[in-house]
Amino acid sequence: MKLSIIIPVYNEKATILEVLERVIKEPIPGVEKEIIVVDDGSSDGTIEKLKSFKSKDIKLIFHDKNQGKGAAVITGIKNSTGDYIIIQDADLEYHPKLIKHLIAPILEQKTKVVYGTRIKRLPNFKNEERNIRFLMHYFGNRFLSLVTSVLYGQWVTDMETCYKLFPRTALKGVKLNAKGFEFEPEITSKLLKKGYKILEIPIQVTPRGYDEGKKISAFKDGTKAFWYLFKYRFTD
To answer: What pLDDT does 40 receive?
Structure first.
């Protein structure tokens, strides 16, 4: 099996090289890796870091200007050739060692779509959710996941997770429109509407603080996600 690992990047000079090293070095038994990095118009020196990274194992693509995470992911998908696709963020929240656990049920032919869920749990008031912005993000994601479950008839606990693993064939005839973080509800909506069942596997991540460059806004992006969940339930 060939797996396309798409890494959208925007202003991640502090972490991008370590992420690439991790993705390249992490073994995934029974899988050929295709690593596609899409820089979305970085302006902080990330581009220079990427160009200096010497490896034949990655394909580099550069947007002339910043368009948003969804646009970067879609560019990566269009340039991928794998049987399956997974998204890998360019910060250090998600460790690539988790990918082999997500792909195991695919290799065992138990399912075709796997999400890594971070929130099959209560809020962690001793760690990240003691911060009000993280607590808002936690409850916002739980609410959006509930909305997803009600609208599309399948229980989902973490619609906003980065780790979404799905077959290339699932995108046949599907038009992806997202520019920003609304990619998450759009791809989830369209997978569910095509009849795919999402298997969720619990994962642990290392949340990045907003002072460290976390970009998603619980209110602004959450409101957009709510709208797109309804929009794509009834339109394409």
So the answer is: 97
Per-residue pLDDT of 104-144, as tens digits, reads 999 999 999 999 998 766 666 767 667 776 677 678 878 88
CA angle in degrees (0–180, nearest 5) for 101-46-102: 5
What's the structural domain count of the chain? Answer: 1
Task: Quote the pLDDT of residue 218.
Answer: 62
Write the CATH number for 21: 3.90.550.10
Report the candidate in 193, 140, 184, 189 with the shortest Cα–Cα distance to residue 164: 184
Side-chain half-sphere CA neighbours of 161 within 13 A: 27
Q: Structural domain of residue 81, as residue ranges?
A: 2-234
**Integer Cα distance of 162 and 5 in angstroms:** 12
Distance, in Å, from the CA atom of 17 to the CA atom of 91, rounded to the nearest integer, reads 10
The reported pLDDT for the residue numbered 99 is 97
